[in-house]
Design goal:
With 478 residues, this protein is mostly helical. Among the domains are: 88-234, Rossmann fold (3-Layer(aba) Sandwich); 324-371; 381-477, Arc Repressor Mutant, subunit A (Orthogonal Bundle). It is 43% helix and 9% strand. The protein contains 19 helices and eleven strands. The strands form five sheets. It has a three-stranded antiparallel β-sheet. It has a two-stranded parallel ribbon with strand order 1-2. The longest helix is centred in the last third of the chain and has 17 residues, at 394-410. The protein is elongated.
């Protein structure tokens, strides 16, 4: 029977999904798709104090927004459900009872105050705190009101990590950890092992913060007589400085915020896949199919990957530039400024064709295009603050605009003739483009930036351009 690849993404519904969580999900998704396997979403919702209402829906929406479709999960069902840990409590109690009967689990009667005191004693002695050194000799019968702990069997371990390679530890890191809390809910350390076994998960991909706990997991696998799945530990995503784990302050924002800002799903997937993975080439742009074909866990780097939002912006711009205009128009439908509401689609497509080269994400569309739909306030500061125009006298600028108005009015307004007219103006006025073209651009748009001058003037139309130039002439007279 061929080896069946089943991967899972198992977040806690305690907030939004940021780039670190999405990368883990993406690696799992790529692995499953590459091997014609299944990708499972499981919600680890046993910490009710930290759970955020609506976070479960948000997590599912985030995955789907990036095209990371899951084959089994809370809202699609599946053979191995339920897919919320809070609905699997009976299963955890069943496995816990097996451990009790084997003498491998016991009720913990120690109060929180006593635990804190034991930790302080260990700290004062400058030694690690191990609960097994204070294991009760006659623990009470477990009735669910006390925590249930694993009775560990400390020993050295060696194991292979698909990313980190061959690893080993001594017995000193194995301890009696809590399996089920006094509120009846299991700990992550217990529940994920049960769920992975019952759901026949073949590969576990998780963050570096769990690596130190693996010896305890291995101890529990043995106590439960369960086979280990393949394990892969992905390193932290680091902040822009590369010296600390990425935080919300550094840009670890909600992945849906990127979608709302007009970052394309394929660009986000491409960018996130390269946070720590490389196929040994200098390639930077990968289609989704290429990622599925080329991704390998053993090519994931062992050191942290630096988050560079500028690289994401560049990559998204690349994807935008390579979209057909009809496709880009469809993607842009929710990003136009309000005055564009009733404008014809063909007009919007012509505008998109002009700004496509400089568009980095779709939320930039309003500031790059609003002057095509409405007259912006005439702001003399755009002239005064220009490093070239700001040095020239206003009467000279007015004179240049008057000459420009006459030339533009006499043009037949074809793109070729407009280009010829503008170049002739340069010769007639003996001015550089940085002066003349910048002045006409500001007068016809009153925007901080715009596409090529001839293209912009041509699309605005003669009447609109002359009307705006007239206003600029009056403004310069003042």
């Amino acid at each position: 029977m061929p080896y069946k690849v089943r991967t899972r993404f198992a977040p806690s519904p305690t907030g939004y999904l940021h780039v670190g969580g999405i990368r883990t999900a993406l690696f799992c998704w790529l692995l499953s798709r590459q091997n014609k396997g299944q990708f499972i979403l499981r919600l680890e919702d046993t910490d009710k104090k930290r759970e955020v209402p609506g976070a479960d829906e948000h997590l599912m929406q985030s995955l789907r927004a990036l095209g990371l479709d899951f084959d089994e999960g809370p809202d699609v069902g599946g053979t191995y459900g339920p897919y919320r840990q809070s609905e699997r409590l009976e299963s955890y109690r069943k496995w816990a009872q097996k451990l009790i009967e084997k003498g491998r689990a016991y009720a913990d009667p120690t109060s929180e105050e006593d635990l804190d005191q034991l930790r302080e004693v260990a700290k004062a002695a400058k030694k690690p705190f191990l609960y097994r050194e204070h294991r009760p000799t006659r623990p009470p019968q477990w009735d669910g009101s006390q925590p249930l702990r694993l009775k560990s069997d400390p020993k050295p371990y060696t194991w292979h990590d698909e990313v980190m390679g061959d690893l080993s530890t001594g017995p000193e890191v194995v301890d009696d950890f809590i399996l089920i809390k006094s509120d009846g809910f299991p700990t992550y350390n217990f529940s994920h092992i049960i769920d992975d076994a019952e759901m026949e998960i073949s590969h576990i991909v998780r963050g570096q913060e769990f690596l130190a706990s693996v010896p305890n997991y291995l101890n529990l696998y043995e106590a439960l007589e369960l086979d280990r799945p393949k394990m892969a530990t992905v390193p932290h995503i680091l902040g822009p400085g590369g010296n600390k784990k990425l935080s919300k302050r550094d840009g670890a924002k909600d992945v849906l915020d990127y979608v709302r800002d007009g970052f394309l799903p394929d660009a986000l997937v491409n960018f996130i896949a390269l946070l720590g993975w490389n196929d040994g080439t200098d390639q930077e742009i990968y289609s989704r199919d290429e990622l599925i074909q080329k991704f390998r866990l053993n090519q994931v780097q062992r050191s942290g990957a630096r988050f560079d939002e500028q690289r994401l912006i560049w990559m998204n711009g690349h994807y935008i530039r390579h979209k057909p205009i009809d496709t880009l128009h469809e993607l842009s439908k929710d990003f136009w400024p309000p005055p564009a509401k009733d404008s014809p689609d063909e007009y919007k497509k012509r505008i998109l064709a002009l700004v496509q080269e400089r568009l980095k994400y779709l939320a930039e569309i309003p500031k790059l295009t609003n002057f095509f739909f409405e007259d912006l306030p005439a702001d003399i500061e755009l002239i005064n603050s220009d490093k070239v125009l700001g040095k020239l006298e206003k009467p000279l600028l007015r004179e240049l605009l008057v000459k420009s108005r006459g030339a533009i009015e006499s043009s037949d307004f074809s793109l070729d003739h407009l280009n010829s007219t503008l170049n002739s103006l340069l010769e007639q006025t003996s001015q550089r483009p940085a002066v003349l073209f910048s002045l006409i651009r500001i007068a016809t748009t009153w925007a901080p930036a715009s596409p090529g001058l001839a293209d912009t003037v041509n699309l605005l139309g003669k009447d609109k351009c002359l009307q705006r130039i007239d206003k600029a002439i009056v403004l310069l007279e003042k």
